[in-house]
Amino acid sequence: MHRQQFVSLLGLAVALIALVTSGATWSQIQHTTDTENTPSDEVLPEIAPAGGPAFELGTHMATLSRRVSTLWFAAKAGNQAAADYEITEMGEVMSQIIAAAPVVDGTDVDIPGVLDALRNTHFDELRTALRSGDHTAFEARYKAMLDSCNSCHREAGRPFIQLKIPARPLISNRDWSAGMK
Ligand code: HEC
Description:
about 180 residues; mainly alpha; Four Helix Bundle (Hemerythrin (Met), subunit A); 5 helices; binds heme C
């Protein structure tokens, strides 16, 4: 047999095997969906370990940061309801951090105290600027809030975590004008 013929026969065999294998997988999928199309506690893996997941400050901060970014684009679109919602949600993330009262080893940064002060200092001003419809005023308030975020990061030995006005949204599938009157 010529080498070329052998190679094409081998290719055919591989293709046949792939077909048979995928056929088996397909019937398995069908079987699963036919008989077990309702998820139940028995088949779904446990997500949170018993006793709840351990608190991770970085994870909460990343959520906070995402909301801070979303706030910028909602405000830029003039969507007061969406922007207001993000501020409320930012406050909730902060409440979760405050309740967990994490401590940064080797520093005397009072995380719950500083976060509470940040909310009290900036949230009302951000909302007032939003309602005025003056985006320049909002930008000034937004930057002032970021300064507070960044100064805590410096004090907490994380000078490399510095937030700025986002250039583009983290997500592209959000309709920023939704719900606007
Ligand atoms: C009271 C102090 C404090 C304030 C205020 C604060 N942070 Fe943080 N932030 C931290 C600390 C400490 C870490 C590092 C967490 C770690 O090492 O796990 C952090 C980490 C982060 C990170 C990195 C998260 C990651 O993926 O690991 C982001 C992003 C962040 N903060 C955003 C913000 C934003 C946005 C604000 C303001 C709205 C803010 N932070 C306000 C203390 C603060």
